[in-house]
Amino acid sequence: MLLRYSSSSVTLSHCHKFHRKRSFNTSSKIIRWRPRDEYKLNQPELVDRITRILVLERISLLNRLCFDYSDEILDAVLYKLRFNPNACLSFFKLANKQQHFRPNVKSYCKIVHILSRDRMFNEAKVYLNELIGIRKVASSSGSLVFDELVRVYRDFSFAPVVFDMVLKMYAEKGLVENALIVFDNMGKFGCKASLRSCNSLLSNLVRKGDSQVAIIVYDQIIRAGTVPDVFTLTIMVKAYCKDRGVHKAVEFVREMERMGYQPNVATYNSLINGYVDIGDMEAARGVMKCMSEKDASCNVITYTALMKGYCKRGKMHEAEKVLNDIKESSLVADELVYGVLVDGYCRIGKMDDAVRIRDEMLSAGLPVNLTICNSLIDGYCKSEQLDEAERIFLGLKLWGLKPDSYSYNTLVNGYSRGGHISKAFELSSEMDQEGYVPTVVTYNILLKGLCNDGSFDDALHLWCLMLKRGVEPNERSYSTLLAGLFKVGDYEGALKLWKDILARGFTKNTITFNAMINGLCKLGKMVEAEDIFLKMKELGGIPDDVTYRTLSDGYCKIGDLDKAFQVKKQMEMEGISSSVEMYNSLISGFFTSRRLDRVNDLLVEMNATGLAPNIVTYGALIGGWCKERRLDKAYGLYMEMTKNGLTPNIVICSTLISSLYRLGSINKANFLLQKIADVNLLSGLENLSTPCGGDHAFRKIAESLDETAKRYLLPNDIVFNIAIAGLCKSRKVQDARRLFSALLLRGFVPDNFTYCTLIHGCAAAGNVNEAFVIRDEMLANHVNPNITTYNSLINGLCKSGNLERAVRLFHKLCSKGLAPNVITYNTLMDGYCKADKMIEALKLKDKMIEGGVAPSVVTYSILISGLCKQGDTDASMDLLDLMIESGINPTIVTYSTLVQGHIRGRKRISQLYNEVHPKELSSDSGSSTETGFMEPLCDRAMVDAFVMSEAVC
């Protein structure tokens, strides 16, 4: 009974409990209530609950916890489970997938340390990569990540290998500044960089051009006890070549060999590249010989490097020999090898040879790649064969290729340089439609094209459009706009833009400083240019060879050769070697200042430095001797040039032809002109089959032009302009006018140069009314006259005695949107002086200075001549003193004028002699017409402005 009762009691009790439990469950479903410890946990309790769930690997239960992910919770969980990497990884992944939460830098650093300690390196690298990729971190100094890694390291006391991992990852991503922070500090925590990480850091430093830093880092690596390998050796050879010269690199290799390291083919290739960079091809060949002696087989990269060196120096025959060497060896020339040759020929304008090499490559069964096609497009554009460039561009699809942004930009640049601005804009629009969004490079090309075309207002509109589309201008953008302002004579606008450039932080950019210096030099403002140069150094900018060459060229153009050589000396003291371009400027300067005896000395010095004359050098020499009427010297240099494998260009051909016209050798000029043109197009010119007679040198030149014409036929518009200019210079203006009329009937479209040449010819011949008629024709054909055109008209009016009309035209220039230049002022000043209006002439000189135009030696010579004619010798001497104080050196013409004016003052003559004698201004420095002023100085300046070799280049 008791037992039954007891049993009954137990049963009832269990039933009661079951009933309560069931009632509880039913109730919970209705009100959705949870126990207190499931929804009102404080943070320590919540973290404890999360960690227990993670340790038990019951991650699904985390969804039942009511909490929001935060940095505090994530960091607390990672710290508490730091010895359980799998649990930490699971929770970090879960946190990383949340819609409104992302782990911060501290959490990333913790998980990287935790995973690295357990040698879960692949997973650690994933999150380290994400950490470095965070934009706000990647753009910082790098100390944020490193400082946090250090803090976690100190808290956890494990995984110093993380520092080596982050060092390598920074290096591989090219974030060398961040990598250097890690490298400099990781030793403090007992962690030594691995050799692989060190090699990665060194390699990327060299790749970014920080070779000097790479050498310092290498020394620290050696001091830390890290043993380098052959890969380290190869990297350091590149570093030494770029920083301390290839000779230091050779010493380094020898030292490593003494330590037992055997250089491999990559090491030798680096040495060859070093010699190639400095143009020492004989030494590069010597390295290849050394490789053979040490049983280090040359590979395709070795031969390609050698080929690049020959192509760089324009020695294409030698480059092709290297290709033959590859064919004779067991190596196979690939499309990269052929591409180097194609590009080499394209760079020097030998497009027939470039196509020949491409066809040879196709015959070998190799496919044409986009790089080769881009080289051909670029070559044809630079050779002004835009039709061929278009054909290659449109034919890319036939090769299964698609044009890239470089293809588009190259052709856009070709159109812009060729004056086809509309086509350039059409192609840039097509580029946008094809998915290649125009970049700042594209805009820079279009800006330069518009500025060169004289459409500066359109250039400003494009600039505003570029800013509106969110394209940030770079240093080239600003430099292009700056050059455009200088070109239109807007000196004040250029200064305003320059201040804006400096305000935007381009204070250390060499390109913008060079653009400013170049603009000032072209205006003859050498004092201001020198100030900008000094400002550049003051702000930490580093002048390059272009900076020094621009300054030197500026001084050469104003005839101050002493200052030009001072710039050259200063450049060489800075460790920058004189370039061919520097010598070219100095050669032109000697001709400008009539110091002809120094030209040959300069050529000897140039040859002693290992520099070979290029096509521009020969152009300057031939042009200089042609101006001096020494055609024998010009012919000799022409033959020397062709003997050295250089093909005459437009400038050289037109210089010779123009000189023949000027010297009255019309038949010879016509004969040469027809050699480089379609004869039928020039039927209006007299043509002789054998105009050379006994002139052997001329005959040789004519024969060489037969070969030139096969590869390089001058565009028709240039040929016509040369012919018209030649006839005008021969004072056969009516013949030029008749030829012009005949050409118009055949569809010739004259440009600014054509009209300007005719206007100058008519004005110089005294037919001013005819010059104005041509000016009106020019306007009717929508060709805007430039300042050179109006200079010709003003000169013609002054020569014909119509000074008042010349003055009125001068004052109208501003309304025509033109700014007078030094030639304009000199021409009008000369007119005032001839009319005995010295007060007006001197006032004009003051106005010239107020307008920002610097007086030249011609300016002062005109005024001194005028004062001397009036007998005002004291005023002329005062003006001479002012001229010297302004930094302008008087010429023999200036002094001879003063001598004539002071002929009765014996004492003053003695004083002038004492000034002239130390300057070594010999009596033969100028021609008889110049010293005697038989021809107005401004006229000679105008003639110089119309030299054909300058006009067509």
Automatic annotation (TrEMBL):
Keyword hit for Protein transport: no
PPR repeat ranges, renumbered to this chain: 159-193, 194-228, 229-263, 264-298, 299-333, 334-368, 369-403, 404-438, 439-473, 474-508, 509-543, 544-578, 579-613, 614-648, 716-750, 751-785, 786-820, 821-855, 856-890
Keywords, in A-Z order: Repeat
Repeat listed as a keyword: yes
PANTHER family: PENTATRICOPEPTIDE REPEAT-CONTAINING PROTEIN 3, MITOCHONDRIAL
Family the entry assigns: Belongs to the PPR family. P subfamily.
Name by which UniProt lists this protein: Pentatricopeptide repeat-containing protein
Source organism per UniProt: Papaver nudicaule (Iceland poppy)
